[in-house]
Design goal:
The complex is a heterodimer of chains A (420) and B (151). With 420 residues, chain A is of the alpha/beta class. Chain A folds into two domains: 143 residues, Alpha-Beta Complex (Aspartate Aminotransferase, domain 1), CATH 3.90.1150.10; 253 residues, Aspartate Aminotransferase, domain 2 (3-Layer(aba) Sandwich). Helices cover 40% and strands 16% of the residues of chain A. Chain A has a seven-stranded mixed beta sheet with strand order 4-10-9-8-7-5-6, sandwiched between helices. Chain B is an alpha+beta fold and 151 residues long. Chain B has one domain: Sufe protein. Chain: A, CATH 3.90.1010.10. Chain B has six helices and four strands; from the N terminus they run H-H-E-E-E-H-H-H-H-E. Chain B has a four-stranded mixed beta sheet, covered by helices on one side. In chain B, a hairpin with a 2-residue loop joins strand 2 and strand 3. In chain B, helix 2 packs across helix 3, helix 3 packs parallel to helix 6 and helix 4 packs antiparallel against helix 6. In chain B, 40% of the residues are buried. Classes of the chains: A alpha/beta (420), B alpha+beta (151). Chains A and B meet through helix 12 and helix 14 of A and helix 1 of B. The site of pyridoxal-5'-phosphate (PLP) has 14 residues of chain A, from helix 4.
Chain lengths: 420, 151
């Protein structure tokens, strides 16, 4: 496998060489929007893609396209290789014990739904509880509500404090013997809060409760090791980690995956089929019915190579610098309030400008070429918790620079001028 | 700043800052609630209708500048109009913000609403501008359910 970035340079000065080189890997960053250079600060929604990933997709369809696990012919073997190499890359990327514990799904949403459907719905009884937190994305709320509706179980929610942190004492109290499953987000996409999942998993395990971690905002920003965390499930989306849309990962411990029932029935998930009896395939194939997203998996493997090439330690360090710089710069603006002020934060900043609706902010700075997200970010309960309809959110990736933060700040000054 | 000007016209900024008829009408005999779940904009439109004529209009709620100014301008145009005339205005406004109005034909009827023509250049904001008008239609039809921009 080719390394996407060969040399290791420190990210120090404002527009260090290293960042310029990284930016050069992302063709879209060269484009203009509304006649201004694009400043892409909506990375929590989806990240941009490096050329290496785009080339992998292109080459797959140009050179190797074929179905997998079925043909004896050359192309089918090449496609199968690319697909299974993607699985191995992902397994070692997150520290899974074995590639078989990696199930390919469409994204975080499907990964959570799979666990809700194939494990939790089957084992939960009326009166049992599923425990989540007050900062979950809708995709880590609604699947559990559906399970609760179907089984008579109850969804319990650990409250968060004014900084947007989980209230730890409440979590401890709420981990009663009624709780049969815990599902928590690692990094909040609307608040930026990094939850202390290591301890939270340990506490749940002390009571014998399995834990799923929503890692959608984690994997392209922070090193993760599922063995060290000891989480039972870990889910994330390819498109937020420089990979294509429509591909995501469910990691599960072998012992759970083996006891779970299939998610969908069809080709590839079976060993043998007769009209009398069907024998399911082993993991991971038991959960991958039908022709999967072969191109997506292959390109996701390439996205992992890209991240490894840059190095998550350096990514983390650079993004923390950006977070600090952006937080300070934003707080210099009169009437600006940051929503989500946890001690441990990722480079996601939600904010409000006094008297100006986030949508108006978004539209005006878009004319300056700056892309941010405005709205509830699929976390309506978080908005309710803070008594606000929406926020403006700037979220950063490794290719963002302090100069881009400055462009954002100048854009916000313009917003204020329009509304003064 | 030229595109900015086409969206955030002075009239819109003024109505956002000082919304007209921004109050609950206690004597309203029609009202409806409108909601845009994507941005959280939420308004209640109150109308007092007598013999098919709109006597008074008021509105409450919160949202972006475009939605608030739109509700405010709407409320200031409706007084004294018949229900049929109000329906016509609703249709005209919709045409205007989606860029399908014929300026030659509609020019004398547009008046203040012309300030919203720029919205058609911002597809993501058309719903903001339309929310109050959809809600007005529901109020005039005396519909009970909440109007949502997402159906
Ligand atoms: C924390 C979190 N969880 C889950 C999701 C859902 O991911 P996807 O839409 O890729 O399934 C997102 C994406 O917005 C997210 O930020």
């Amino acid at each position: 496998m080719k390394k996407a970035v060969e040399t290791v340079l420190p990210f120090t000065s404002k527009s260090s060489h290293a960042i310029e080189r990284i930016r050069a890997d992302f063709p879209i960053l060269k484009r203009e929007v509304n006649g201004k250079p694009l400043v892409y600060l909506d990375n929590a929604a989806t990240s941009q893609k490096p050329l290496s990933v785009i080339e992998t997709l292109r080459n797959y369809y140009l050179e190797d396209n074929s179905n997998i696990h079925r043909g004896v012919h050359h192309l089918s073997q090449k496609a199968t290789e690319g697909y299974e190499q993607g699985r191995k890359n992902i397994a070692s990327f997150i520290g899974a014990a074995e590639p078989e514990e990696i199930i390919f799904v469409r994204g975080t949403t499907e990964g959570i739904n799979l666990v809700a459907h194939s494990l939790v719905k089957e084992m939960i009884k009326p009166g049992d509880e599923i425990l989540i937190t007050g900062m979950e994305h809708h995709s880590n709320i609604v699947p559990w509500q559906i399970v609760c509706e179907q089984t008579g179980a109850k969804l319990s929610v650990v409250p968060i404090n004014d900084k947007g942190e989980i209230i730890f004492e409440e979590y401890e109290k709420m981990l009663t013997s009624n709780v049969k499953f815990v599902s928590i987000v690692h990094i909040s996409n609307s608040l930026g809060t990094v939850n202390p999942i290591h301890t939270m998993i340990e506490m749940a395990h002390d009571k014998g409760i399995p834990v799923l971690i929503d890692g959608a905002q984690t994997v392209s920003h922070m090193k993760i090791d599922v063995k060290d965390l000891d989480c039972d499930f870990f889910v994330f989306s390819g498109h937020k980690m420089f990979g294509p849309t429509g591909i995501g990962v469910l990691y599960g411990k072998r012992k759970y995956l083996e006891m779970m029932s299939p998610y969908q029935g069809g080709g590839d998930m079976i060993k043998s089929v007769t009209f009398e009896k069907t024998i399911y395939n082993d993991i991971p194939y038991k959960f991958e019915a039908g022709t999967p997203n072969i191109a997506g998996v292959t390109a996701l493997g390439s996205a992992v190579d890209y991240i490894n090439g840059v190095g998550l330690d350096r990514i983390y360090q650079h993004e923390q610098e950006l977070l600090q710089y952006a937080t300070e710069s934003l707080l210099n603006i009169d009437g600006l309030r940051i929503i989500g002020t946890a001690k441990n934060k990722s480079a996601v900043i939600s904010f409000m400008l006094e008297g100006i609706h986030p949508h108006d902010i978004g539209t005006i700075i878009d004319l300056e070429g700056v892309a941010i997200r405005t709205g509830h970010h699929c976390t309506q309960p978080v908005m309710q918790r803070f008594g606000i309809p929406a926020t403006a959110r700037a979220s950063f990736a490794v290719y963002n620079t302090k100069e881009e933060v400055d462009v954002l700040i100048r854009g916000l000054d313009k917003v204020k001028k329009v509304f003064q | 700043m030229s595109e900015l000007k086409t969206l955030y016209q002075d009239l819109i900024l003024d109505h956002n800052k000082n919304p007209r008829n921004f109050k609950k009408l206690t004597n309203a005999n029609r009202h409806a609630e409108g909601y845009n779940p994507l941005c959280g904009d939420q308004y209640t439109i109150y109308v007092q209708v007598e013999n098919d004529i709109i006597r008074e209009v008021g509105f409450e709620g919160s949202g972006c500048a475009i939605s608030k100014a739109s509700a405010s301008v709407m409320s200031s145009l409706l007084k004294g109009k018949t229900i049929a005339e109000a329906e016509e205005l609703i249709t005209l406004f919709q045409k205007l913000v989606t860029g399908t109005a014929d300026p030659m034909e509609e020019i004398d009827r547009v008046g203040k609403l012309a300030a919203f023509a720029g919205v058609s250049e911002f597809p993501a904001r058309v719903k903001c501008a339309s929310l109050a008008w959809h809600t007005l239609r529901a109020a005039l039809e005396d519909k009970e359910q909440v109007v949502s921009t997402e159906v």
